[in-house]
Write a structure and sequence with these properties.
CATH class of the largest domain: Alpha Beta
Shape: elongated
CATH superfamily of the largest domain: Pseudouridine synthase I, catalytic domain, N-terminal subdomain
CATH topology of the largest domain: Alpha-Beta Plaits
Oligomer: single chain
Largest sheet: 9 strands, mixed
Order of helices and strands: EHHEEEEEEHEEHEHEEEEHEEEHHH
Strand content: 15-25%
Number of helices: 9
Radius of gyration: 21 Å
């Protein structure tokens, strides 16, 4: 089946569709050795290269990572605090959105550019939930002000949100947008300083059970609920690309004989239970 080249590149985790279009326009992408254009379509048998390096589709990776304070959400390996080196995952991944360096909590790591775009650039916005600790007692007026929308500069007023008390110095807030240092700026408007900020949920995905600095693979139930909410049809979690019949046979036999009781449809239980014990 033929698919558009930018969609294929995004599915490989090499870039988002927008970035893929720019690469194609810049002449950096070839298909079977021929420079591609924006209308190019490809199949599984085509060889796609970016800057002379071949790419191919692989298992869709979606990790739920508990970002600790002090780690930067960047792929820049020149930054010693970059999240990619901290996690040390053996395959190329990147974060969907970001958390400030001083913030902590749930971060989605993936190799799927389309998924990232669906979550980050939705017009309606998707829920993100935070537990915030501040330096003064939380009052009804403060929470009411946060909920109604806050002017944070440059003519920007935040969308209405939900803010409820948790304890004397702590509250829970649910946002449907992600502006730069938004919660900190909202609190500062009312004379509060954020002492600690933890993201505990993104849509249906929750932080519970993941220790700081560790990650786990998304579960099948979480995955299907996520793509349903995003309006994405079909599943690519185990969409492997094989160049030969022998590779297909090897893959089938590997799953059939797996001691974890895995099967082709559900994937490897040993893989799904992975955590970053080395970080």
């Amino acid at each position: 089946m033929e698919i558009r080249l930018n969609k294929y590149i995004a599915g490989c985790g090499a870039a988002s569709r927008r970035a893929a279009d720019r690469m194609i326009e810049e002449g950096r992408v070839t298909v079977n050795g021929v420079k591609a254009d924006l209308g190019t379509k490809v199949t599984e048998t085509d060889i796609v290269e970016i800057d002379g390096k071949a790419i191919s589709s692989s298992r869709e990776i979606i990790l739920l990572f508990h970002k600790p304070r002090g780690i930067t959400c960047t792929s820049d390996r020149g930054d010693p605090t970059n999240v990619i080196d901290f996690i040390g995952f053996p395959e190329r991944i990147f974060s969907i959105g970001r958390l400030d360096k001083d913030s902590e909590g749930l971060l989605i790591m993936t190799n799927n550019g389309d998924l990232a775009n669906k979550i980050m650039f939705s017009r309606e916005g998707h829920e993100k939930e935070y537990i915030v600790t501040v330096d003064k007692p939380v009052t009804r007026g403060f929470l009411s002000g946060l909920s109604g929308g806050v002017p944070i500069g440059d003519g920007i007023v935040t969308r209405k949100c939900t803010a409820v008390p948790v304890s004397k110095y702590k509250f829970r807030i649910i946002l449907r947008q992600g502006l730069n240092r938004q919660i900190r700026r909202m609190c500062e408007y009312y004379g509060y300083n954020v002492v600690r900020l933890v993201r505990v949920r993104i849509m249906n995905l929750v932080l519970d059970g993941i220790e700081p600095g560790k990650y786990r693979d998304i579960t099948d139930d979480e995955y299907h609920a996520l793509i349903e909410e995003l309006g994405i049809s079909g599943s690519r979690r185990f969409n492997f690309r094989f160049r030969s019949v022998s590779a297909r046979v090897w893959f089938y036999l590997s799953f059939r004989n797996c001691p974890a009781g895995c099967n082709f449809r559900s994937g490897c239980g040993r893989r799904n239970s992975n955590t970053a014990e080395d970080v």
